[in-house]
């Protein structure tokens, strides 16, 4: 008796994974944009951000993570739109790979690039290395208390958000890899199911002709 395969659960699993990638990308987008916004706003006057030494900071890693999250979100949304549109197995597979593979490669490049920049510390610092290094440091005693904008009170939160952005991108990369793998498995299941359906139709036609 021929083995019957239902590809629908595979397509559903793939859609769920890509949906999670989109949700995670939104979170990464929010945290990266927030940390970059605080740096751009406070670096010019907050002594904790070295206003006289702006070249000490390299924010390209944060910018890459931010851009990657936007692109992954857009491509994941495109995938989810076409995931529920009836299409031939090969066309569905091409659409899937056309959205998932660029997202996967870009996520991998962003993770490697951000880690390399972090390893340049202390010759140069990223937002993550700087805030994580000085989040528990105390300011010198002052007769007049300084406003929060001139302190490092937000460094703990910025440190955690920066770490979340890079490790969250790693999670997205791993989920995208699973999504790519499911594309090939689902394509094979679609082809097998279509072949079995054709055989059953041919068998029924043969039975009708014999009768």
Could you please describe the fold and organization of this structure?
The protein is mainly α and 211 residues long. The chain has one domain (8-137, 150-203). It is built from 5 helices and no strands. It has helices spanning 8-42, 60-83, 89-119, 127-134, 155-210.
How would you spell out the order of helices and strands? HHHHH
Domains, number: 1
Low-confidence stretches: 140-144
Number of helices: 5
Distance between the termini: 23 Å
Q: How does the major sheet shape up?
A: none
Q: How much helix, percentage-wise, in residues?
A: over 70%
Number of strands: 0
User: What class, by secondary structure content?
Assistant: mainly alpha
Strand content: under 5%
Question: What does the overall shape look like?
Answer: rod-shaped
> How large is the radius of gyration?
25 Å
Overall pLDDT confidence = 86
Transmembrane segments: 12-39, 64-87, 94-116, 164-189
Protein name: MARVEL domain-containing protein
Keywords: Membrane, Transmembrane, Transmembrane helix
Organism: Pleomassaria siparia CBS 279.74
Summarize the structure.
Keywords: Membrane, Transmembrane, Transmembrane helix. It is built from five helices and no strands.
SSE arrangement:
Layout: H1 8-42, H2 60-83, H3 89-119, H4 127-134, H5 155-210
Helix pairs in contact: 1-2, 1-5, 2-3, 2-5, 3-5, 4-5
Protein name: MARVEL domain-containing protein
Organism: Pleomassaria siparia CBS 279.74
Keywords: Membrane, Transmembrane, Transmembrane helix
């Amino acid at each position: 008796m021929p083995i019957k395969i239902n590809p629908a659960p595979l397509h559903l699993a793939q859609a769920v994974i890509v949906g999670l990638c989109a949700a995670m990308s939104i979170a990464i987008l929010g945290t990266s944009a927030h940390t970059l916004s605080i740096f751009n706003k406070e670096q010019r006057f907050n002594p904790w951000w070295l206003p006289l030494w702006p070249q000490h900071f390299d924010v390209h890693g944060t910018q890459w993570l931010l851009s990657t999250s936007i692109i992954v979100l857009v491509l994941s949304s495109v995938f989810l739109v076409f995931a529920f549109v009836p299409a031939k197995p090969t066309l569905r597979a091409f659409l899937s790979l056309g959205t998932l593979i660029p997202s996967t490669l870009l996520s991998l490049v962003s993770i490697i690039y951000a880690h390399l920049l972090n390893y340049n510390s202390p010759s140069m610092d990223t937002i993550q290395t700087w805030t994580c290094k000085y989040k528990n440091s105390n300011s010198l005693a002052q007769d007049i208390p300084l406003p929060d904008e001139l302190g490092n009170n937000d460094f703990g939160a910025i440190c955690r958000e920066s770490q979340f952005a890079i490790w969250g991108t790693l999670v997205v990369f791993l989920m995208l890899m699973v999504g790519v793998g499911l594309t090939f498995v689902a394509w094979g299941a679609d082809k097998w199911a279509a072949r079995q359906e054709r055989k059953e139709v041919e068998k029924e036609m043969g039975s009708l002709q014999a009768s």
